[in-house]
Write the structure tokens for this entry.
Amino acid sequence: MMALLERQRIREPMKRNRSGEATRPAGTMKWMAWVVAGVLFSISSLAYSESWSSQRCEAKINRMTGRHVKCLLDAEAVLSKQGHLAKYEKRVAQCEARYSADYARALAKWPEACPRLDDSTMAMQLQVGSHVDSFAGHLRSLISDTAPTPQAGEVTLYNRCDVPLKFMSPSNPATLNGIVIPAKGHKDLSITGDLNVGNNNTIHVAPQTTASQCEAAQCPGWADIQYQPFPDNQAQRAGFMWEAPNEVQAAYCQATNAGAKQCSGEGGATPCCGPKMNFDSTFGTLWEITPFSGDQDFVNLSTNFGSGPHAPPTLCSAQGADPDDCVAMNANVFFNVPVKIEMHGGACSCGSLSSQSSIQCLKASCSDAYQHPTDPKQCVCSSGGERAYLVTYCPQGSPLPELSSAFIDLD
């Protein structure tokens, strides 16, 4: 390169402009332009190379993740066919080991291009593996109708219903409010990371319906719950309003709006079901968990059914009512989706229910739930890293009511 510069100086000595200032020869200027162009091309090529490497790494991880899912499902097949847990666990360990090795090789080949989070490479790998395991569990639920196994320190919400479920939480809106779980899907919640530790977590649920399914539910026909007339002559909600012949409406319709005769059509402001329904935490199956309150977890179901079906809990406005054991006029009966809560890690002391490893509510009058605010049915469970909970919606033998096929088409 220096020889080239010397030749440029010999052929084209420095010139001066009219002011006497030295100027660089035209040939040298051309040479510098070529150098700059070369540098820019090199930078562009490097950027393209890095982009290309990133794409290759992502493709590699996609392929090996696919193999990992297949490996896990093959292990599931062995367990389903042979029922041999030890063989299944050995195969899963082999799947994990191969995935770890493949991932390490991908990172070694493209150390700066492979997708990663700000965390360490190991954390990234663990998170990818967790998603793969969750996906394999979802497929297992779809194929074999087998519930996922909750991991220690987690609450697993499992939707065994035939429609998506949306969750509501007035006490933990940041994490729980708005969760949607598809049919046969599940969601794992970290007890210490996703829940209010030492405080209450109230969880409601409601089915998500299409416009056609909403039409089939016929929410405006839920006559028993409607005020006569609204709003001047309100009547307290009672258990019979959620029983036959109201099972379909009680399952799919927004009870608060239905009671106020505000089940407008799809284009209205207050639809009682369908894509635009208001999930406002005023209705739906309700359960609560207060984890790590001291060294205990507190779990309960609640419906407000009273001694029913025509004897609801005491109104707070009634003369002599206990302010700690009464309900407001507009308090709903909290039930729409059947639910079962399994407490893994040892049985719990559940008040008048005695020692239980699970509680369930398959209808509004379920005996495992609080039927008034001070019903002594709260489960007290030992806390600790080994405790886990499986919450199954529409457990075996308790599906949601069927919607009339005459109203349903493919949306």
Observations:
- The CA atoms of residues 242 and 250 lie 5 Å apart.
